[in-house]
Design goal:
By secondary structure, this protein is of the alpha/beta class. It contains 10 helices and 18 strands. The strands form 4 sheets. Strands 1-2-3-4-5-6-7-8 form an 8-stranded mixed sheet. A 6-stranded mixed sheet has the order 9-10-11-16-17-18. A two-stranded antiparallel ribbon has the order 12-15. It is globular, with a radius of gyration of 23 Å. Bound molecules: zinc ion (ZN) (2 copies).
């Protein structure tokens, strides 16, 4: 079975941060941060339904207008998560334009602020000239977007302002055993997708799944109980976990909460703006060093580390950052100071 998430880190290593994640099997994509989007095709941007913004420094938010422009006349809702203040930021961007010809546009922007203990939500509706102001509040601990297939969680960290780091976790993976399928004389087809949906949705084992061929007027084999199919032809394995850290100060208080939060990531995307010998500069700018990124990856048990968001001062020597992060990441846990 192909992975659920296909990811693409844009503009790297020196450009604006954007992580594009396509959900395979769905016409849907997620964005982590909203930096410059020019390198993404319109087709890819049409698929975006949810955006997870770390903070609204310009390099993380300048792509907002681009995303809005492309999707404006479409019948869809884009949900944007971000730290306290993002509702005001989005409202400010929307108020910068004139909206007298949009009465027929069904497009909606839903903005959700991740506050300390709650999520604040406001919907900006295009045909109302984005003037809506109705606010809804829900309690929040960790998970902010729960989908049958995956969960996105958020953690507030210190970047001299509040910045949000995110994890994206596939709930579990359903593998179909093709050999067993063949041995039982069952066809390969769309019914397997329905079978997976039943498992994702948590239908009871007594639920009847219709096994049929795909072709028009295709033969219906039989109805089989979900519990039997689960046992006979599927294997459930651990899903993929992606973690996204940008931007964040390299301080003990951050490390203490980040490490358990991103623990066990298959891929950890982590900003690493400076090298360790420039850590005073990193500290004054509220950023991590490559060594600190490697430390987080190692201590949290990441399988793979991808560093990004390098300071332009290393334009001629990006390898310094890659090497420093990798060296720290691969260093034995036992030897570690940071
Ligand atoms: Zn920043
Ligand atoms: Zn930044």
């Amino acid at each position: 079975m192909p992975p659920l998430f296909e990811h693409e880190l844009l503009n790297q290593p020196f450009g604006d941060p954007v992580l594009y994640v396509r959900l395979t099997g769905e016409r849907k994509a997620l964005l982590f941060d909203l930096g410059e989007l020019g390198s993404l095709s319109a087709g890819k941007l049409f698929k975006v339904t949810h955006v997870f913004v770390s903070h609204t420094h310009m390099d993380h938010f300048i792509g907002f207008d681009h995303l809005l422009r492309l999707n404006l006349s479409r019948d869809k809702t884009i949900t944007i998560y971000g730290p306290e203040g993002i509702i005001k930021n989005v409202r400010g961007r929307l108020r910068g334009y004139t909206w007298n010809l949009v009465e027929d546009y069904p497009f909606v922007i839903e903005v959700i602020e991740v506050c300390a203990k709650k999520l604040r939500k406001v919907c900006f509706i295009c045909r109302d000239r984005f003037m809506s102001d109705v606010e809804k509040t829900t309690p929040f601990e960790k998970a902010i977007d729960v989908h049958p297939h995956y969960t996105v969680s958020a953690l507030r960290v210190d970047h001299k302002i509040t910045s949000i780091i995110y994890t994206l976790e596939e709930r579990f993976r359903i593998n179909i055993n093709r050999d067993r399928l063949q041995r039982l004389g069952l066809p390969v087809g769309k019914w397997l997708r329905e079978l997976k949906s039943c498992i994702w949705e948590g239908k009871p084992d007594s639920w009847l799944v219709c096994v049929k061929e795909d072709k028009a007027g295709g033969k219906i084999f039989k109805e089989i109980e979900l519990g039997v199919l689960k046992k006979e032809i599927t294997t459930i394995t651990k899903g993929e976990k992606i973690a996204y850290i940008s931007d964040c100060r390299g301080i003990e208080r951050n490390f203490r909460k980040i490490i358990p939060f991103v623990s066990g990531a298959d891929i950890l995307f982590c900003e690493s703006a400076f090298i360790d010998s420039d850590k005073d500069k990193a500290s004054s700018k509220g950023h991590l060093t490559a060594r600190q990124a490697g430390f987080i990856a190692r201590e949290s048990g990441a399988r793979e580390l991808k560093v990004f968001h390098f300071s332009p001062r290393y334009e001629h020597c990006p390898d310094l950052l890659y090497q420093e992060a990798e060296q720290e990441f691969r260093r034995s846990r036992l030897s570690g100071n940071r």
